[in-house]
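wait is this the right file?? whatever heres the structure
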């Protein structure tokens, strides 16, 4: 495909200087980025000047730089897929922009995630926390899940409201990214054994580290503010502004969800919001992936290619990784333990109750349809988890060759 006389036409590649020796570069249409040395960037720029592989090889030789330009060109075409055309023939086509809510106003997004807006969000959270400290009856408990007298109806409602609030969290990420000029999309995924809704903001890596926090913390900011507002409403109810009991129960449920949502984000042995805040602050490019490679090395399950990849990790990140790995292992064991000991038995128990209820009820009765709806809703998270596992497994089957400049 590529030979010494080939002309390579690149995609619209975006880049950001990592340090004096490296650049982060990639395609924004498919959010594919990699860190390359300066010499690789220079070769790409020379191809953009419509020089052939042979021309570039001669330039490198004249400068005394030993580099296999042809081999690197093949990497650009096949592995990185940075090349749009080879000798005028389309090799890697442009990927359609599948980002969501592309018509959102950047002005409104910037307003909702300005420094002043963040101040208001934090203020609401602090007010809510102070009220809870002064009156512990406002602290959410597991009993707040029961909005109605009917247990099944309460669980169904809590599940539906939970997914709405999760979407709200992810929509905050999307809007905050939009305020920074980054398009993103909301999709389904998993964190170990937890099904999740997630916002793909991969192109945010093009921004300097200190500008990313606005988008990374957006979901937690809205969760915290909503919790604070909810606590204020509960306080108002106790001082004379009485509210409907169902409305109060819904507010309590929302508060419970917000607290659990924020707590989940601190499980940063998974790819949660706080994990990305942590890696952004310490400037780790791929901490979780590298940590898993390190575990493979410890368990002697590492391939030759993975060993080379592990050896090429920056020493600074290696030091962080070697401390993070133990926290990661303990966290994973804890999460799997909770999933096996608590989540699965609880789900099976509720499902068995619902199935028995459906079997012993008339098909036209409310009890039958109540049980059936509960079974359907309870199956959604499991379906998402299985879907995400399969998607990840298929993705991991594709292995790229190491990028060569030798």
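ok assuming it is, sequence goes like this
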């Amino acid at each position: 495909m590529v030979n010494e006389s080939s002309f390579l036409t690149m995609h619209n590649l975006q880049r950001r200087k990592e340090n004096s020796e490296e650049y982060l570069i990639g395609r924004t249409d498919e959010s594919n980025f990699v860190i390359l040395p300066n010499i690789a960037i220079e070769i790409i720029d020379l191809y953009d000047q419509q020089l052939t592989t042979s021309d570039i090889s001669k330039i490198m030789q004249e400068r005394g730089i030993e580099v296999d330009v042809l081999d690197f060109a093949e990497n650009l075409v096949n592995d990185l897929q940075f090349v749009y055309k080879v000798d005028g023939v389309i090799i890697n086509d442009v990927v359609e922009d599948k980002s969501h809510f592309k018509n959102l106003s950047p002005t409104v997004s910037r307003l909702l995630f300005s420094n002043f807006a963040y101040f208001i969000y934090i203020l609401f959270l602090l007010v809510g926390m102070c009220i809870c400290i002064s009156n512990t009856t406002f602290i959410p408990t597991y009993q707040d899940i029961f909005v109605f007298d009917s247990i099944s109806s309460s669980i169904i409602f809590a599940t539906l409201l939970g997914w709405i609030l999760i979407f709200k969290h992810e929509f905050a990420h999307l809007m905050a990214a939009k305020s920074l000029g980054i398009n993103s999309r909301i999709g389904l995924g998993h964190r170990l054994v937890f099904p999740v809704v997630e916002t793909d903001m991969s192109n945010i890596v093009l921004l300097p580290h200190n500008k990313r926090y606005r988008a990374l913390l957006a979901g937690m900011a809205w969760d915290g503010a909503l919790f604070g507002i909810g606590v204020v409403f509960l306080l108002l109810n106790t001082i004379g502004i009485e509210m409907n009991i169902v409305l109060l129960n819904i507010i309590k449920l929302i508060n419970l969800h917000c607290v659990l949502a924020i707590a989940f984000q601190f499980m940063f042995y998974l790819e949660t919001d706080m994990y990305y805040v942590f890696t952004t602050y310490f400037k780790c490019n791929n901490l979780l992936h590298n940590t898993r490679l390190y575990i493979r090395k410890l368990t002697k399950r590492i391939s030759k290619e993975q060993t080379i990849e592990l050896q090429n990790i920056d020493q600074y990140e290696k030091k962080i990784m070697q401390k993070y790995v133990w926290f990661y292992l303990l966290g994973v064991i804890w999460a799997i333990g909770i999933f096996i000991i608590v989540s699965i038995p609880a789900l099976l128990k509720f499902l068995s109750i619902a199935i028995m209820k459906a079997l012993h009820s008339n098909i036209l009765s409310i009890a039958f349809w109540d049980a059936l709806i509960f079974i359907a809703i309870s199956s959604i998270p499991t379906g998402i988890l299985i879907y995400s596992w399969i998607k990840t497994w298929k993705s991991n089957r594709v292995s790229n060759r190491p990028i060569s400049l030798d």
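Confidence is low (pLDDT under 50) at residues 398-406. so i think its the right one actually
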